[in-house]
Structures are given as structure tokens and as C-alpha cells.
TrEMBL record:
Gene3D superfamilies: NADH Oxidase (3.40.109.10). This is Oxygen-insensitive NADPH nitroreductase. It comes from Cohnella cellulosilytica. It holds the Pfam family Nitroreductase. The gene is nfsA. Keywords: Flavoprotein, FMN, NADP, Oxidoreductase. The keyword ATP-binding does not apply.
Length: 245
């Protein structure tokens, strides 16, 4: 155990922030740390949009499902998978970018996630907190229009950033036995580990909700997996020039 591992294992989502501004030098260091994440073939297939305009923040909060902390947090970042810049770079050398493939979509999405997580860890190391906002995809076409995203750019998620004004209980994760397989995928190891985790999550949910609910992880996931969401994503992505082959 060292300071880095302690930091990583103490992560929790922060949804209530102090009004204290995030210093510009710290924000720059956080973003530059994000840039140093691993990236496929050095493509760096992402862009980050910092939302400072108050009215724009308000609109985004509404589009994200009325998540008020999107409007109130000191810093709100929109992390975008970006193949537009690479297409423009290819054109400089007389090459038509083949950016509509599924592989390039995966690369851009993974690059974005890796950079964002680097940034999140850097932020937490400076005493700040973050929460990812998947709700940016609830009304993704409207978000894309609002942010004037060109073809081959899509918002993967948002990120609220600031000094925490809460200390949530640490959310437990699945036992390692449920997610780690040696040499081959071991189906028989999954459900026993999940049963153990269900008991842990019942205790966590009871404490977090002050006794209002004790739903297990598997119950929550069964409900989620039985109700697919954001079915507009496929048509939006193809219209934006992704996933055509």
C-alpha cells in the first residue's frame, strides 16, 4: 500500500461542492495529466469542452436529467470522442480519413475514458472531487447541437469537478473473484462472488438510505438490464459519422 493506491481505493463520487473556485493552475495540471494517459497509436482521439457560461450550464443540467450539480459545480467538463481532428489532419496530407469504422469508434471512446480517468485521479490528488455524468447522453443530439459538435465528435460523458462539500460512504465493489479470471473466463466463479457482494451491498444501501431500502446489487442490475436505455444512441452515432462499418 502506498499513497497512490490509497488515493485510488478511496474514490467516491461527489455531487455537492463548495463554491470555492478551482484555481486555474490546478485545472491546467488536471487537464495536462489527462493528456498523459495512454492513447492508441498516439491518436489522442478526444477533446474536452469546459463549460463556463452560466446559461449554457443551466441548459446542460436540464438535458442531463435535471442534475443540479451540473449547474452548480465550479467546473463542468464535457469529454468528447473526437475523430474530426484526425480527419482534418489526414486531409492536410491528401488522405481521406477512414474514420467511420467501428474500430476507430472504439479507439476514440477508450482514449476519452482513459484521459478522463487520469484527470479524475489528478483532481483527487489535489483535494478535489469529481462525478461522471452519463446523463449527457440522455438527449445527446440536443447536447451536440448546443455545443456545436462537428461530424465525428460525440460527448461520451460530462464531469463535475470542485472541492467536496460532502463525504459519502465509500461504495463497495465486487469481490476480485467476480472480475478476475486466470487463463480463461471462469463462469463458475461469478455467482458465488455475487452472492457475497449482495450481502455487502444490502448493508451499504441500508446505511446510505438510512433504512429506506436494502436492495442488493444483483436486484439493481436485474432491473437495469431489463430496461434498456438511450436507444437513440445508435442512430445518433451513425448520423455523426461513426459505426458505419
Amino acid at each position: 500500500m502506498n499513497d497512490t493506491i490509497r488515493l485510488l481505493q478511496n474514490h467516491r463520487s461527489i455531487r455537492k461542492f463548495l463554491t470555492t473556485p478551482v484555481e486555474r493552475d490546478k485545472l491546467d495540471a488536471i487537464l495536462q495529466s489527462g493528456q498523459m494517459a495512454s492513447t492508441s497509436s498516439n491518436m489522442q482521439a478526444y477533446s474536452i469542452i469546459g463549460i463556463e457560461d452560466a446559461e449554457l450550464r443551466k441548459q446542460l443540467a436540464s438535458l442531463c436529467g435535471n442534475q443540479i450539480y451540473v449547474e452548480q459545480c465550479p467546473v463542468f467538463l464535457v469529454w468528447c470522442a473526437d475523430l474530426h481532428r484526425l480527419s482534418a489532419v489526414a486531409a492536410l496530407h491528401g488522405t481521406e480519413a477512414q474514420a467511420d469504422t467501428t474500430e476507430y469508434f472504439v479507439i476514440a471512446t477508450v482514449d476519452t475514458a482513459l484521459a478522463a480517468q487520469n484527470a479524475a485521479i489528478a483532481a483527487e490528488s489535489l483535494g478535489l472531487g469529481v462525478v461522471y455524468i452519463g446523463g449527457i447522453r440522455n438527449r445527446i443530439s440536443e447536447v451536440a447541437d448546443l455545443l456545436q459538435l462537428p461530424e465525428r465528435v460525440y460527448p461520451v460523458f460530462g464531469m463535475c469537478l470542485g472541492y467536496p462539500d460532502q463525504a459519502p460512504v465509500l461504495r463497495p465493489r465486487l469481490p476480485l473473484a467476480a472480475v478476475y479470471h486466470q487463463d480463461a473466463y471462469r463462469i463458475d466463479s461469478e455467482l458465488p462472488a455475487v452472492a457475497e457482494y449482495d450481502e455487502t451491498t444490502r448493508e451499504y444501501m441500508t446505511a446510505r438510505s438510512q433504512g429506506r431500502t436494502s436492495r442488493s446489487w444483483s436486484e439493481q442490475m436485474a432491473e437495469k438490464m431489463g430496461n434498456p436505455s438511450r436507444l437513440h444512441m445508435q442512430s445518433f452515432l451513425t448520423k455523426k459519422g461513426f459505426l458505419k462499418r
